Amino acid sequence: MDKEWARVRLSFLLSFLACLVLLPAGGYIGYLAAGRIAFRYEQSKSFKTLGRRDAEELRRIGETAYALSVSRVLQLQKTEGSLRQDIEVLDKLRPKAAHEFWRIIDLRLAEDHAGVARIEEQANNSAQAAGHRRIAEDLLQSLGWRDVSENALNQLADRRLRHSLLRKTEK
Amino acid sequence: MTRGMKISVVTAALIGLMVGAVFGVKQGVWLSRSFDYVELMEASAASADFAAEQFKYADVAHAREAAFLQIKFLQLLRRAGHDQGDEKELGWAYVRLAMIEKSADQKEAERAALDKAREYFRGSHPAEELTDDQMKSALVQMDEAMERARL
């Protein structure tokens, strides 16, 4: 009788423990699965007023803009390393980006190259500086900039670097 | 394990799944909308910055192209019913276009752009009617403020 009672109690305890585990585990799995499905469904029907082609275009523009905003965070650091990293990110992003955004990316690339050129110049690496300046110049020319002289490029770099880094490298 | 216990275990798992799914759906919908909002806000800001920068430094053809890109994008957002594509933004984009056309001495195109700008401003601020010069100087001031904010 005692043994039987102990078995019942053990079995009750085990099922109680199973409930304790399965309730939150089920909740977590349900949360993840439903969250993903809802996200995808919602994304598929967003901008549906635009029609399929325009909605697709807007979604691609949005994705590119988001990637650009992430790269802007890199630019905020204003260090040579962060500018170089930003150049890498933008170079990779450009071929995948929405066509409309190519020129916007080019401008950002030109700013980065002008910034790196300015820093290299401050560090007396004239060959490296000239290389970056040439890339910036070509990009700005393709964007129709009226003045792509060395002075204009330095001004562009200074605006972006906010002088702080230049002062640091001068020391 | 008795049948009753098995039923309670399965029921616990099902209740967990259902409760999780309810929160998951809410979170998924919220995330999707927030994602769209952030992405489009960034896109709107990027196209506006680009148009302002090109207006200041590029030749007429490229500045015009950038202004049209911003207008196209804002109209797309407006059609999608997004906040970022509001009429005021479109109004300012057309004022910029008008200033570009003025610098290219395209009087008719300038007039058309200003009329379009006024039309959009009328939609967002029906009580106020700005003159051409007021619209242009406001845009210049806004650009200067943006430039200062960047520095």
Rg of chain B, alpha carbons: 25 Å
Poorly predicted runs of chain B: none
Total helices of chain B: the number is: 5
Assign the structural class of chain B, choosing from mainly alpha, mainly beta, alpha/beta, alpha+beta, or little secondary structure. Answer: mainly alpha
Helix content of chain B: over 70%
Q: Termini distance of chain B?
A: 72 Å
Shape descriptor of chain A: elongated
Radius of gyration of chain A: 28 Å
* Uncertain segments of chain A: none
Fraction in helix of chain A: over 70%
- The averaged pLDDT of chain B comes out at 87
Largest sheet of chain A: none
Order of helices and strands of chain A: HHHHHHH
Beta-strand residue fraction of chain B: under 5%
Number of strands of chain B: 0
Question: Which two chains touch over the largest interface?
Answer: A-B, 57 and 58 residues
**Beta-strand content bin of chain A:** under 5%
- The geometry of chain B reads as elongated
Q: How many strands appear in the DSSP assignment of chain A?
A: 0
Can you tell me about this structure?
The complex is a heterodimer of chains A (about 170) and B (about 150). Chain A has about 170 residues and is mainly alpha-helical. Chain A has seven helices and no strands. Chain A is elongated and about 100 Å long. Chain B starts with a helix and ends with a helix. In chain B, helix 3 packs antiparallel against helix 4. Chain B contains five helices and no strands. Chains A and B meet through helix 1, helix 2 and helix 4 of A and helix 1 and helix 2 of B.
